[in-house]
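Side project, low priority. Logging it here so it doesn't get lost.
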Amino acid sequence: MKIKTLLMGTIATIACAPAFADGHEGERGRDGQVNIIYWQAPSTMNPFLSGGTKEIEAASLVLESLARFDETGQMVPWLAEEIPTVENGGVSEDLTSITWTIKEGVTWSDGSALTAEDLIFTHAYCTHPEGGCSQASYFDGVTSVEAEGERGVKITFGAPKPFPYTAFVGAESPIIQKAQFADCLGARAPECTEANFGPIGTGPFVVEDFRPNDVITFVANDSFREAGKPAFARVTFKGGGDAAAAARSVLETGEFDYAWNLQLAPDVLDRMEAVGLGTVVAAYGTSVERLHLNQTNPDPALGPDKRSVYMDGENAHPFLTDPVVGQALSMAIDRTLIDEVGYGAGGQPTCNLLPAPELYASTANDGCLTQDIEGAKALLEGAGWVDSNGNGTRDKDGVELTVLYQTSTNAVRQDTQALVKDWWSQIGVGAELRNVDASVFFGGDPGSPDTFQKFYADIEMYTNNFAGVDPEAYMANWRCRDIPGPANQWQGNNIQRFCREEYDALVDQMATTANLEERGELAKQMNDMIVQSYSIIPLIHRGNPSAHINTLGGVKMSDWDAEIWNIKDWYRISE
């Protein structure tokens, strides 16, 4: 597949200013309409109420942060005048505070000024004890957010913060308007439908019409701070369908200008690209296709108050909390074949939850790269899992080794499911396969039984990554307190319900460790603890292939931020 790839960064560097000049200056909206298809349709425009990438991506057209990460992993000032550092006085010598200055003249799309009060409110919104903020880990360690004048914001940490660029940095930690969301704190957050579907932002576009799980119409923000941008007057952001249809709509028919997340077999994309209308591009960062093994009991008989609810460890899964079972499931998998069938040049087998940057990549788990069916059988046999009734499935103490294995509807994922089911059957583990429409699966609706956060299954598969290149906030997602459940409206990011006090201690230690090499070792320890618990089984370190029409210019796809982070710089190339 002839994909343009963007190489992974190693450690974030700081650019003095973004250099986005495209040489196509003119009036705002001069290039008419751009059509984007994200076949996993967004269910909300509030990224704090969904852990789904599609919501974060859609919201990035409207909601912005102080700094962003570009296509190379460089941190660039966005709403801030500059990136604070110890050298320029923005970060305190003892690393316990960071002070940002908002650019002069930044306004919300309603014309009102963005001020420090909006950042103070955003912090309060996402850390409210009665709320369920999916991005709460970005505020870990923050003890206060205070105004220093109208445009200055001082963030204070409870201990030295060697990497202070988490709160209000990247697409997952944007700023929301206090005036619009003031009555939406805590448990009321999901009830504010008008604000959640049509947030007022500082970004290049404004929501004109939002139809959940369908289509979003945006128009150019007349109050946007950069003259002549965006070049497009309107954006149609279509959801639904599948990856194959999305790819065809750009590469074969030209109906859409940009298609996201084309998780298709390499030969399929090759044939489509050969038509000549568009180009397949891919960005490599930290995305890992993985299996999550539910550490809680998903039995429907438990009812909604207990099903897949952690309950301080009192509701353990009947067998997936046994690492021997998880290890056997991992050993049975041929990751190389999954890669060949589903990813090709767009992926590589991995044994790590955290595969990059190189500083943080462990080598302690590389044995998973070799499939070992016989070893998996012996492991289960030695642990007392035998087929006592001759039905082909192992059992122990009356419990059958049978799992419900779910994922989103996608051809590559269904192919992977079929392969994995066959390998597991060879070691005496039964699997029922289920796939859920991606818009629902990743939707974050606390009332839906089919979301990946609810996890009403034994095992589920999907890809995740993190913004930026420092993994501190990402690895903090597996704290005990971040387990989804009714109390946080199912918005936690610790999806498999992993909980270890010693893991939480490592998170706390990393938050106060400045030495880069020591931070790398701590990240590896956290990765290894999760992987070796077999609550997550990594499969493929994957690039994120997308496609754009050849007449669309300015695309600088990023895997360190929102993929379409620089949409303000897109323009139409004259044919």
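Brief comment: The CA atoms of residues 331 and 372 lie 5 Å apart.
Revisit when time allows.
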